[in-house]
Each structure stands twice: as structure tokens, then as C-alpha cells.
Amino acid sequence: MRRAENISGNLDWLTVLLFFLIALLGWLNIFAAVYDESVYQNIFDLSLNSGRQLVFIGASVILVIVVLVMDFRFYDTFSYFIYGAVILLLVVVLLFGREVAGSRSWFEIGPFRLQPSELAKFATGLALAKYISTTGFRMDRLSHQVALFAIIAIPAVLIVLQGDAGTAMVYSVFVLVLFREGMSPILLITGIFSAFIFILTLLVEDHVYLYMGILAVTTLAVFLNRKKIKRITLIVAGALVISGVIRSVDYVINDLLKPHQQNRIKAFINPDSDPLGFGWNVTQSKIAIGSGGPWGKGFLKGTQTKFDFVPEQSTDFIFCTIGEEHGWIGSLVTIALFVTLILRVIYIAERQKWRFARVYGYSVACIFFFHFAVNIGMTIGLFPVIGIPLPLFSYGGSSFFGFTLLLFILLKLDAHRTQVLVH
Predict the structure, then answer these.
(1) Does residue 191 contact residue 175 with C-beta atoms inside 8 Å?
(2) What's the DSSP call for residue 272?
(3) Burial (0-12, 13-18, 19+ Cβ within 10 Å), 316
(4) CA atoms of 172 and 174, how far apart (whole Å)
(5) Are 343 and 355 in contact (CB under 8 A)?
(6) In this structure, what are the phi and psi dihedrals at residue 114, rounded to the nearest 5 degrees?
(7) Which of its termini does the chain have fewer beta carbons within 10 Å around, N or C?
(8) Spatial separation of the C-alpha atoms in residues 334 and 157, rounded to whole Å
(9) Containing H/E element for 344?
(10) In sequence order, which residues have a C-beta less than 8 Å from that of residue 367 and are 6 or more positions away?
């Protein structure tokens, strides 16, 4: 039997508070990023990003109410339907959407714009949770693993076809969810190892020494393993992976990536080689953050962002405003809020007795973590600039709605965690 519960009494209010605190700080900093002291500007002015962001926040409150009043079983029952509907949107926008900044990712009807790829994240999380929680599912069965990767790959491929490789990269983080649910760590280790080799190949000019060094380390690691395994097989497999990754670098960079994406990789490797060209964004971002010092220049007192030295200061590089105007202390507080939110989501996921809710909870945590880590990494030069917004902080309606849905569907499921579910 299922017994009714008081949603307001069981809602995780700490997470709700963190949500609104981050949204409020984001709104204030969006205004600070575009503020011009020579012209009178009102933070509520709808012609400014800050005014429009406030509308998005208000609309998200309505969205939250809708999510919370829905029967929590709706998200389980209609997971595949929601996923299918979003996939259809991704196909339609690819055919008829508007192209913005080289990506055909937007629907535009009058003043209203929607980016379906932001909605695909929560839909993919629901579909994964549904499949993994299905009776008879086994993570060690190859057919089930193929189905899981298909669920992840379909939206990612469609988003790549739209020209938005940065957003598509977000879907790689779902592998961590599968690892939490019992998938062998070999895949995760191989992925991290391959990414490491890829970056090293970009940094090291003489690939012969790279081959020799990495293969030597791989061989040593295999022989230090105390388990009785086929060492020769592992060494050969490692050599093939190393060779494949190194040989793929030139093809990926020169043939698959567009010119502006190639420049982002060059800026990541050596932004100082062309500080007035492709290295401009990262260089100016570092200057803005560093100029804030420990305490910052003060709210609305920033200069690097005000005079457009830093591009996309309301979206991709919003963290620069924090660093410049609020300094190291403000940056630390902002990071602490995000870390607390992510840890809270993990805690919520772990306390679920229903596998569907737990898997979805880890999907939420991983997506928030990826966006948080990559966005801040972009602004300080630790990651290539790939157009990843800071969750609930960067300007944008589609992004804000997507993260709101992600988080509050989890809170709705969590509010019913003590109910007995009949499968």
C-alpha cells in the first residue's frame, strides 16, 4: 500500500535554499556583468539580461510547483515517453531550428527561444533510471550495457550533429552513474587513460618518446598487479589503445573539429601564443579573476568585464565577475555553495531505497558536477572553452529551466522515499 505524504514536510528544504541562493547570486552577477555606470540601468529592466533572467527565475517557480504537484509515479511511468519526446525535439530542431553561434540548436518563436539539448539531460537521466530499475536488469549483461550506452549516445550524437560538441560532452558523465550501479571500472579507467593520452599527444611534439614512455608505464603497472591475469594480453591491449588514441588526434583536431573549435584547443594548450587572437578569451578571463585580489573591487566596480575585455561575461564566463568584484573570498563562497549542493544531491541519492530514484539522483549530481567543474575550469584555463554554463548562475532560460527540472524532480521523488513501492 502507498500512504499519502505531506510534500512540504518531506521536501528537502536545505537543497531548496541552496537552489535559490545560487539563483539569486547568479542574477546579481548577471546584472554586474552588463552594468554601465554612465547610463542609468535598473536591475529589473527587461531589456537587460538581468531583467530577463528574473523572468526565467519566476517562470521556474511555476515549473517547480507543477513538478511537485504531479504524482511522483508519473516520472517513472512516463520516463520513456519523456525521453522519446525530447529526442523528437532534437531531431526537429536539427532540421528546422535556428542557427546561433554555429549551432543549429534553437527553436525561436517571436521573443521566445528554447534549446532542447538542455531538456535532454533530465530526460536521459529518467530513461537511464527507468531501464536500470527494470525487473531482471543486470549490469554485467552485454545486451543491457549496449542498451544503456544507446540511451546515452542517441541525444549526444544528435547534439553533435547540431554543432554543439560542448553540450554533447556532458553525456559522457553518465558513465559515472553506471559505475555507481555496478559496471566494471575497466571502462571508466580506459576512458580516463585515453583522455590523458589525448592531451599528452597535444602537448608532446615527439610522439616516439610518448609511445615509449606510456607503454613502459603501462607494462610496469600490469606487472605490479598481484592478481593472476593474462599480462601479455593487457600489455597488447594497452599498446593498441595508446596507438589508436595517438593516431586519432590529428584526425579529430583537423578533420572533425570546426575552425573555432580548433582555436579553443590551441588556446587551451598555449593561450600566450596568440594573446590577441584565439588566446584572448582565456587570457582576459585570468586577468579579470586575478585583478580581484583577496576581497575584490566591489559590487558593480569591475572593469575587465564592464568594458567587454571578457567575452560572454553573462554566460560562459560569469565566474569572472565573481573573481573580479568579490575576489578570492567571493569565489570561495560561490564554489562552497556549489560543492554543498552537489554533496547534498549525492546524500539524497544515497538515502533512496528505490533504485529508480537513486540512479536518477546520481544523474543529477554528475550533471551538476560536470557543468560546475568544466565552467570554472574554462575560466582559469584548466579546460578548453566549450560553452558550458554555470548551473543556475549563467544567463539563459533553457539552461535554468533544465537544471530546475533536474533538481526538483529528484526532490519530488525524495519526498516520497518512505513510501512502500510495489513493483
Answers:
(1) yes
(2) G
(3) buried
(4) 5
(5) no
(6) -135, 135
(7) N
(8) 33
(9) helix 318-350
(10) 121, 125, 170, 173, 406
Instruction: Identify the DSSP state of 225.
Output: -
Tally Cβ neighbours within 10 Å of residue 269: 13
Q: Which three cell numbers stand for residue 262?
A: 580548433
Is the four-CA dihedral 271, 273, 274, 278 of positive or negative sign?
Answer: negative
Distance CA 240, CA 95 (A): 38
- Whole-number Å distance between alpha carbons of 200 and 213: 11
pLDDT tens digits for range 114-149: 899 999 999 999 999 999 999 889 888 889 999 999
Q: Where do the structural domains in the chain lie, given as residue ranges?
A: 7-181+273-415
CA angle 228, 189, 266 (to 5 degrees): 145
**CA–CA separation, 70 and 58 (whole Å):** 19
Please give the full DSSP string across 234-256, using - where no structure is assigned. Answer: HHHHHHHHHHHHHHHHHHIIIII
| Residue 93 near residue 107 (C-beta atoms within 8 A) | yes
- φ, ψ of residue 306 to 5 degrees: the values are -60, -40
The string over 184-221, giving b where at least 16 C-beta atoms fall within 10 Å of a residue's C-beta and e elsewhere, is eeeeeeeeebeeebeebbeeeeeeeebeeebeeebeee
Identify which of 98, 99, 94 has the alpha carbon closest to the alpha carbon of residue 157: 94
Helix, strand or coil for residue 112?
Answer: strand
Round to whole Å and give the CA distance between 174 and 131. 14
pLDDT-wise least confident of 101-115, 127-141, 226-240, 391-405: 226-240
For 296, how many CA atoms within 13 A lie in the half-sphere containing its CB?
A: 20
What the block records as the C-alpha cell of 47 is 531589456
- DSSP helix/strand/coil, 370: helix
Give the H/E segment covering residue 66: helix 49-69
Residue 254: per-residue pLDDT: 67
The per-residue pLDDT for range 380-390, each reduced to its tens digit, is 877 777 888 99
Residue with cell 529551466: 401
Helix (H) or strand (E) holding 96: helix 79-96
In Å, how far from its chain's centre is CA 314?
17
Q: Which residue has the cell 549516445?
A: 153
Among residues 307, 373, 338, 337, the alpha carbon closest in space to that of 169 is found at 373
CA 386, chain centre distance (Å)? 11
What tens digit of pLDDT does each residue of 23-69 get?
999 999 999 888 877 777 888 888 888 999 999 999 999 999 999 99
C-alpha cell at position 174 = 553518465
Residue 206 predicted with pLDDT over 70: no
